[in-house]
Design goal:
- By secondary structure, this protein is an all-alpha fold.
- The protein has 2 domains: 80 residues, no CATH class; 94 residues.
- The chain is 78% helix and 0% strand.
- The chain has 8 helices and no strands.
- Helix 7 runs antiparallel to helix 8.
- It is elongated, with a radius of gyration of 29 Å.
Length: 213
């Protein structure tokens, strides 16, 4: 991330609360509307943010200074609507409110969709990894259950009915383990493919948006 990008992000973080939280009378009276507009712009907020500021401050007799707010907002949107910002916005799976100027929106949207795809690929990989881990743990648990029941089966004090019930249970557990062993290779293969696709896309995005995300 360049120095200018870092400064913009830091400024947005410092003044972010003013754009999100409701404004009381002292805040409305002392408000720097250019800065508030800039913050709303750099966060990519829709114009309904201005409506909220107006609702908050008009009742205190200190409505927003619209020209200052809109000038600040446009400056903030120039920062927000850069491709590296679009990529990060999509990567975090945030919604886009359609706020970018026409001259900047194509580049922003292309990057935004790149980020969204990265998010989807990461989510798909994470989901498959969880499924493989759950299957592995389930197989381990079934192995332990089978070992325990097989030890009970060799006991000499079991009645006939109890022995038959235990044999049925062992068969059921073994079948469940067998199904998992059959399913696991395909699941692991999908995980390998997802990992490769994710890594390739990450590498391409790192070249396209250095310092982004």
């Amino acid at each position: 991330m360049t120095r200018g990008m870092g400064f913009a992000a830091g400024l947005a973080a410092l003044i972010g609360l003013a754009g999100c939280a409701g404004m009381d009378k002292p805040a409305c009276v002392a408000a720097d509307w250019h800065t508030i507009g800039y913050n709303d712009g750099v966060q990519g907020r829709a114009l309904d943010a201005l409506e909220r500021h107006t609702d908050d401050c008009a009742r205190h007799g200190a409505p927003p200074r619209l020209e200052a707010y809109m000038t600040g907002r446009q400056s903030g949107l120039v920062v927000f609507c850069q491709p590296w910002q679009g990529y990060g916005h999509g990567l975090r799976n945030k919604a886009y409110a359609g706020v970018c100027p026409a001259r900047l929106e194509p580049g922003f949207l292309a990057a935004f969709h790149d980020g969204r795809r990265q998010h989807r690929l990461q989510s798909a990989y994470d989901n498959l990894r969880r499924r493989v881990r759950r299957a592995d743990r389930r197989i381990e648990n079934l192995d332990a259950d089978l070992d325990e029941r097989e030890r009970r089966l060799v006991a000499t004090d079991l009645g006939t009915g109890e022995r038959h019930a235990l044999i049925d249970e062992i068969r059921r557990l073994a079948e469940a383990r067998g199904r998992l062993h059959q399913q696991l290779p395909a699941l692991e293969s999908r995980l390998v493919d997802a990992d490769a696709e994710l890594a390739a896309h990450q590498a391409a995005m790192a070249r396209r948006y250095p310092g982004g995300g």
